[in-house]
Specification:
The structure holds two protein chains of two kinds. Helices cover about 40% and strands about 25% of the residues of chain A. By secondary structure, chain A is α+β, with helices and mostly antiparallel strands. Chain A folds into three domains: about 60-160, PAS domain (Beta-Lactamase); about 165-290, 2-Layer Sandwich (Beta-Lactamase); about 310-504, Histidine kinase-like ATPase, C-terminal domain (Heat Shock Protein 90, 2-Layer Sandwich). In chain A, the strands form five sheets. A six-stranded antiparallel β-sheet of chain A has the order 9-8-13-12-11-10. Chain A has a five-stranded antiparallel β-sheet with strand order 4-3-7-6-5. By secondary structure, chain B is α+β, with helices and mostly antiparallel strands. Chain B has one domain (about 10-105): Glutaredoxin (3-Layer(aba) Sandwich), CATH 3.40.30.10. Helix content of chain B is about 30%, strand content about 25%. Chain B has helices at about 25-35, 85-90, 95-104, and strands at about 10-20, 45-50, 65, 65-70, 75-80. Chain B has a four-stranded mixed β-sheet with strand order 2-1-4-5, with helices on one face. Chain B is globular. The relative contact order of chain B is 0.24. The chains are: A alpha+beta, B alpha+beta. Chains A and B meet through helix 1, strand 1, strand 2 and helix 2 of A and helix 1 and strand 3 of B. Strand 1 (about 35-40) of chain A pairs antiparallel with strand 3 (about 65) of chain B, so a sheet runs across the interface.
C-alpha cells in the first residue's frame, strides 16, 4: 500500500471513528439536539427532554398560552388556557379560537390573527367560557417561525381581577363623590359603630373630627329606648333570632349638642352588606327638618288664624250690612256706603296678606287708606308720624275707622271743597304707663261745620271701633273750621321698641 | 454567537456548541467551566448557541449538540455530550498529554 493510500485510509478511519462516536453519543443520550439540513440552511432540532424547562414554564405560567394556525385553529395550548375557558384540555386542540369569541366579534379576532402573522400585537378581548360566563382578557399574538405554514403564538391574560379592582376603585370614587355632594348628613359606620366615612354636611353637623370615632359619641341622639336598640341592630348587623336588621326610616330625633338643641332631624339607617351578605356596617342619614317643622307649625297656626278671621270678617260684614241698611235712606245710598266699607275691609286684608299676617306699619295703612285722594294735590293730604308696628288684630278696625273718616271728609268735610286740607299725624305716647299710639285726624279749610251732625252709622262705627276693637278710645270734635278726630289705642311695647331700633 | 471564557495568546482554542437552555447544553457549559480550571494556560473558549444561529453549525460540521471542538492546535478534535466525564474529555482532546508536556 502506498503512503498516500495509507494516509487516506487513516483519514477515513478517523472520520469513521468520529461518526461512530457521534452515533454512540446519540445512542447513550449524551446529546439532546441535532443539527440537520433544512431548506434555508441548518436547523436545530431538540430531542425529547431538551425543552422540559420551557414546557414547565409554559405549563405553569399564569397566562393562557397557545400556538394557533393563521385560521385560528388551536395547535397547542397550556393548562391555564383550558382552565380560563373552562374547557377540558383535550378538547382545546383542533378547535378554533373563534369558538370562545362572541359571534359579533369574530371579524376583529380574524383581523388580529392576520395582522399578528406579520408582527406582534396585543388587544383587549372578551372570551365566552364554556359555562357561558365572560372572560375579559388581554390577548398578545405574534408570529412563530416554524418554517412551515404561518403559525401564531398567543398568550391570554385574565383581566377579571384587574377589572374588578378598577370597578372597586370606580365604585369607591362614585360613593365618595356621592358623599361629598350629599346635601344631607350621611354617615357610614363599620360594624363596631365607628364612623368610617361622612358627608360634608355630616362633618359640619359633628362640629369636630368625626372619622374613626364611635357614632354615638359624635352624634348623641335623643332616641326612644326601642329605637336605640333598633339602631344598634342596624349598626352591628346583628338582629335577634337571626333576622336581618330592618331599616330605620323617618325617626324624628334631636342631637344632644348645645349648638343643635333647637334643631330637629329625621333619622334613617340601613345595613351595609358585602357581596356574601355579611354585615359591613351601616349608613345613617340625618335630614334637618327644623325649617319644615317650623313651616308646618306656622301653617297650622295660619289655618287656625284664618278660620278665626273668616268668622270675624263674616261677623263684621253682617254687622256692617245690618247697620248700613238701617242708616241708609235708599238702596242706592246703601249700595255706595256698603261698597265703600267692604273695600276698606278688603284693603285691610290685602295689607295683612302682604305682610303674611305679621305686624303692619301704621304709615303703610294710612298711606293705603288715603291713596285714592293723593291725586288731589301734594299739600292737601299730609301724613306724619314715627314708625309704629300695629298688631294684626288692630289692622281691620283701624282700616275701617280710617275709611269712615275719609268718606266723611270726601262727602262733607275738607276733601269735599277745593281748598280743604287733611292732616293725619300720630305720636307714640303712654296711657296709664302702657305704650300707646295717638292719631290725630285734622280737617281744615273745608265747608264750615255748622253743628254736630246727626249721629250716623259712620260716627257710631268710629266710636265703637275706637272703644272696643282698638281697645282704646275715639274722640270726634266737630269744630266750625273742620272735624278733628283723635284715636288712642295701646300697642305692644316690645314690638315697637324693635321698630324704633330698626328705624333708628 | 460566541462567548470567550478566557482569552490571552491562545495555545488552545475550544468551541462548545450548545442549543439554548437544553439540559445537556446547560450541563456542558457548567462542566466546561470546571474543566477550564484544569487546562494549561493560555487557552480560548467560545460558546456557540446554535438555537440562535444554526448556520454556525456548518463551520465545524456539527451534527449533535452539545459538541466541544478543539480547533487549535490541529488536528481538530470533537467530544460529543455534556462533558460530565472529565477524564474522557481531557483524553479525547489530547489535553492530558499536552498538559503533561506543558508541565514538563
Amino acid at each position: 500500500m502506498t503512503t498516500a493510500a495509507e494516509g487516506e485510509v487513516e483519514a477515513l478511519r478517523q472520520r469513521l471513528a468520529e461518526v461512530e462516536g457521534t452515533l454512540e453519543a446519540i445512542r447513550r443520550g449524551d446529546v439532546d439536539a441535532l443539527v440537520v439540513a433544512g431548506p434555508s440552511g441548518p436547523q436545530v432540532f431538540t430531542l425529547q427532554g431538551a425543552q422540559d424547562p420551557y414546557r414547565m414554564l409554559v405549563e405553569r405560567m399564569n397566562d393562557g398560552a397557545l400556538t394557533v394556525a393563521a385560521d385560528g385553529t388551536v395547535l397547542y395550548c397550556n393548562r391555564r388556557f383550558a382552565e380560563l375557558t373552562e374547557t377540558p384540555l383535550e378538547q382545546v386542540v383542533g378547535r378554533s379560537l373563534l369558538s370562545w369569541v362572541p359571534a359579533g366579534r369574530h371579524d376583529s379576532v380574524e383581523q388580529l390573527l392576520q395582522e399578528a402573522v406579520h408582527q406582534p400585537l396585543h388587544r383587549e378581548m372578551t372570551f365566552v367560557r364554556s359555562g357561558r360566563s365572560l372572560l375579559p382578557a388581554l390577548v398578545w399574538a405574534g408570529p412563530l417561525d416554524t418554517g412551515d405554514e404561518p403559525t401564531l403564538l398567543v398568550t391570554v391574560t385574565d383581566l377579571t381581577a384587574r377589572l374588578h379592582t378598577e370597578e372597586l376603585a370606580s365604585a369607591e370614587r362614585f360613593a365618595r363623590s356621592l358623599l361629598e355632594q350629599a346635601t344631607e348628613a350621611v354617615v357610614v359606620c363599620d360594624t363596631t359603630g365607628r364612623i368610617t366615612h361622612l358627608s360634608r354636611a355630616a362633618e359640619r353637623l359633628s362640629g369636630s373630627a368625626a372619622a374613626g370615632r364611635p357614632f354615638h359619641d359624635v352624634f348623641p341622639l335623643d332616641l326612644l329606648p326601642s329605637d336605640h336598640e333598633a339602631l344598634l341592630e342596624v349598626v352591628t348587623g346583628i338582629a335577634p333570632a337571626g333576622n336581618k336588621p330592618a331599616c330605620l326610616q323617618g325617626i324624628e330625633v334631636t342631637i344632644g349638642h348645645r349648638a343643635l338643641k333647637d334643631r330637629h332631624f329625621l333619622l334613617s339607617a340601613g345595613p351595609l352588606t358585602d357581596s356574601g351578605g355579611n354585615p359591613m356596617g351601616c349608613t345613617v342619614t340625618l335630614t334637618d327638618i327644623t325649617e319644615r317643622k317650623r313651616g308646618e307649625e306656622h301653617q297650622a297656626m295660619l289655618v287656625a288664624e284664618l278660620n278665626h278671621r273668616v268668622k270675624n270678617i263674616l261677623a263684621i260684614v253682617r254687622s256692617v250690612a245690618s247697620q248700613t241698611i238701617t242708616n241708609s235712606a235708599s238702596l242706592t245710598a246703601f249700595k255706595g256706603a256698603f261698597d265703600g266699607r267692604l273695600r276698606a275691609l278688603a284693603l285691610a286684608h290685602d295689607i295683612l296678606t302682604m305682610q303674611r299676617w305679621a305686624d303692619t306699619r301704621l304709615s303703610h295703612l294710612v298711606a293705603e287708606s288715603l291713596a285714592p285722594y293723593r291725586g288731589l294735590g301734594a299739600d292737601r293730604v299730609t301724613t306724619a308720624g314715627p314708625e309704629v308696628l300695629l298688631p294684626t288684630q288692630i289692622v281691620v278696625p283701624l282700616a275701617m275707622t280710617l275709611h269712615e273718616l275719609t268718606t266723611n271728609a270726601v262727602k262733607y268735610g275738607a276733601l269735599s271743597a277745593k281748598t280743604g286740607r287733611l292732616e293725619v299725624n300720630w305720636v307714640l305716647t303712654e296711657d296709664a304707663g302702657l305704650p300707646c299710639v295717638a292719631i290725630t285726624w285734622t280737617e281744615l279749610g273745608g265747608p264750615p261745620v255748622a253743628a254736630r251732625p246727626a249721629t250716623g252709622f259712620g260716627t257710631k262705627l268710629i266710636s265703637r271701633l275706637g272703644a272696643y276693637d282698638l281697645d282704646g278710645n275715639a274722640h270726634l270734635d266737630f269744630k266750625p273750621e273742620g272735624l278733628t278726630c283723635t284715636l288712642r289705642f295701646p300697642i305692644s311695647e316690645r314690638r315697637n321698641l324693635l321698630a324704633t331700633v330698626e328705624a333708628g | 454567537m460566541s462567548s470567550p471564557i478566557t482569552s490571552e495568546v491562545a495555545a488552545y482554542t475550544l468551541r462548545l456548541y450548545v442549543a439554548g437552555q437544553s439540559p445537556k447544553s446547560v450541563a456542558a457549559i457548567r462542566n466546561l467551566k470546571k474543566l477550564c480550571e484544569q487546562l494549561p494556560q493560555p487557552y480560548e473558549v467560545q460558546i456557540v448557541d446554535l438555537s440562535v444561529n444554526p448556520a454556525l453549525a456548518q463551520r465545524d460540521e456539527i451534527v449533535a449538540v452539545p459538541t466541544l471542538v478543539r480547533s487549535l492546535p490541529p488536528p481538530i478534535k470533537r467530544i460529543i455530550g455534556d462533558l460530565s466525564n472529565t477524564d474522557r474529555v481531557l483524553l479525547g482532546l489530547d489535553l492530558l498529554l499536552d498538559a503533561d508536556g506543558a508541565n514538563g
